[in-house]
Amino acid sequence: MDAAMVDLAGYSRPLPNSLGSIRVPTVFIHGEADGNVPSEVARWAHAQIDGAELRTIPDGGHLFLLMDAEPLLRELT
Predict the structure, then answer these.
(1) Neighbours of 30 (CB within 10 A)
(2) Following DSSP, what letter does each residue of the chain receive, concatenated?
């Protein structure tokens, strides 16, 4: 539990740099069924980066890439 609390505390601080300063190709892959990080967070982050792309996995949960890495592998090729 202590480790989880330390991890969660990291999310209470602002990002060190604005996401808008990212100038490299960026693709977000997010599961729509993620119960830990709502898809709205991915949509918000995506909107902050000019030219970023967002891929959503309709039934993907928080760890969907452990069940099926194909969406990530498609983006890497």
Answers:
(1) 22
(2) -HHHHHHHHGGGSPPSS-GGG--S--EEEEETT-SSS-HHHHHHHHHHSTT-EEEEETT--TTHHHH--HHHHHHH-
* Predicted confidence (pLDDT) per residue in 9-66, tens digit: 777 677 767 899 999 999 999 999 999 899 999 999 999 999 999 999 999 999 999 9
Report the alpha-carbon distance of residue 38 to residue 43 in Å, rounded: 9
The pTM (predicted TM-score) of the whole model is: 0.76
CA distances from 22 to 35, 42, 71 (A): 27, 15, 23
d(CA 36, CA 27): 20
Q: Are 47 and 26 in contact (CB under 8 A)?
A: no
